[in-house]
Amino acid sequence: MVDYQKLLEIGRDLLIAIGEDPEREGIKETPRRFASYWREFIEHESGNIEVDFALSDTGQMVVVSGIKVWSLCEHHLLPFWCDISIGYIPGKRLLGLSKFARIANQFAHRPQIQERLVFEIAGEISRATNTEDVIVMGTGEHLCMKMRGVKSSGAMTTVSARGQLGTNANLRSEFMQIVGQNIRA
Ligand SMILES: [Zn+2]
Questions:
Q1: The predicted structure's pLDDT at residue 130
Q2: Strand-strand pairing, 111-112 and 62-73
C-alpha cells in the first residue's frame, strides 16, 4: 500500500526541486493528482485469477494475444506499454480468457523491466494452469527510450519460455506463426 501523505509531500517537493512554485494557480492541485495517480497505479486491483477453470486434456496449444498493459520502467519511473502474447499447453486446467489480462496487469502495475514482466507472467500462468509448457512474448515501447537519450522509436521484444515451449523449436515457431496471424487479423 502506498503512503498517500508522503506522496503529496513528494509531489510538492518535486515541483519545488524543478523550480516551480507549488502555489501557482495551474499546478496547485498537481501534488494531489500526482499522489492519486501513484496510488491508483500501484494499488491497481487485477481481480481474482483463481476461479473458472474448465477441464481439458486435448494437449492443444492455446494462444492468447493482443493483451496491452501499461507498466513503469523502474530505471526512470517513466511509462512503457507492452503487447503481451501468451501460449500454453494446458494440462487439466484451462484458464478463462479474462484471466490472462488480469495476470498480465497484476505484474505490470509496479516498477518493472520488460524482461522481468514477461518472466513473471509466464511463472504465474504456469502456476495457475499447473503446466510447465508456457511461453510469453512482450513487445514494448518505452517512453524513457523515446523521449530522452537516443529518442529511438524502436520497439523491444522479450520472450520467456519454459517446458516444451522452451525446448521444442516446432512448438515455438507454431506459437510465433499464430501470434503473427492474430495480430494481422
Ligand atoms: Zn527506462
A1: 87
A2: parallel
